[in-house]
Amino acid sequence: MNHCNILIEIPSAVALQPEFEPLVKEARAVLRAGLGALLDSVYLYGSVSRGDAQPGQSDLDLTLVLTRPLSPQERESLEYMRLQLQERYPVASKIDFDLGLRDEVLHPGNVNSWGYWLKHECRCIDGTDLALQFSAFQPSAAIARAVNEGYSQTLADYAHRISAANSHEEMRRLQKEAARKLVRATNVLRPESDSYWPRTLEDHAAYFSGLYPDMAPPMAFFLKQARAPEAQAMVFIEKLARFTQWMLHQPAPRIAEGSVRARLGLSR
């Protein structure tokens, strides 16, 4: 197999689910009206973008590319917009805004992070699509590391927030988010030479478990929590810390290209 010819798939833009169309439309209008020239472009990602969101259970995830940093007052105004949208549209369990600056997005040093993110994980719903500035990417450990940079600190922050949660609902939501982050972050341990690229949580779990069979049981635990969290908070936090520490002490595996895929029956 010629690794150089393998490109990561660019997801097709599927029609929005009718339940989420009004929310996406209003979010786009509210952000454009509220931010004006500050807003370069808006991108939809996650389950709503893929068309497999669950009304009342799935988040609305938006990446906002800005022309300059927000002032404290502007940041407060943006948070107010987010909370108002969240209150008016319970079809989304939560609304998240991820922020970036146009100069950062287009900086050559961020091509493996921002470039990959916009090209392969997002769809532009407002403004000029910056993803068009990038060609499709080849699978690489460098992209996995760039996209998941700082994952250990992010997971540690989740553990703190879970222990300090003010409600059962908040605790479960945070556990779900942390589990999803962990499952996807395991891609940093991918072999340098492998051309397979996991897309779904199940892909990531199966791929990781093929690389590290002894870690398949804890991975199964976190995959379950990523779908329907039910573990006690302290149990979850303990397992999260143990898994994260294990990851930090693992060198990236170096195996013959395709061996994991063949064992698991995976395609590229």
Task: Chart the SSEs and their pairings.
Layout: H1 21-35, E1 39-45, H2 47-50, E2 60-66, H3 72-88, E3 95-101, H4 102-105, H5 111-120, E4 122-127, H6 141-147, H7 151-163, H8 168-185, H9 201-211, H10 216-227, H11 233-248, H12 259-264
Parallel strand pairs: 2-3
Antiparallel strand pairs: 1-2, 1-4
Low-confidence stretches: none
Order of helical and strand elements: HEHEHEHHEHHHHHHH
Distance separating the two termini: 11 Å
Strand content: 5-15%
Q: How many beta-strand segments?
A: 4
Give the helix/strand class: alpha+beta
Oligomer: single chain
Q: Helix count?
A: 12
Question: Helix share of residues?
Answer: 40-55%
Radius of gyration: 19 Å
What's the pLDDT, averaged over the residues? 92
Shape: globular
Strands side by side in the biggest sheet:
3-2-1-4
Q: Major beta sheet, specifics?
A: 4 strands, mixed
From the structure above, extract its key features:
alpha+beta; 268 residues; four-stranded mixed sheet
Structure description:
This protein is of the alpha+beta class and 268 residues long. It is 50% helix and 10% strand. It has a four-stranded mixed β-sheet, sandwiched between helices. The longest helix has 18 residues, at 168-185. It is globular, with a radius of gyration of 19 Å. The model has no long low-confidence stretch (mean pLDDT 92).
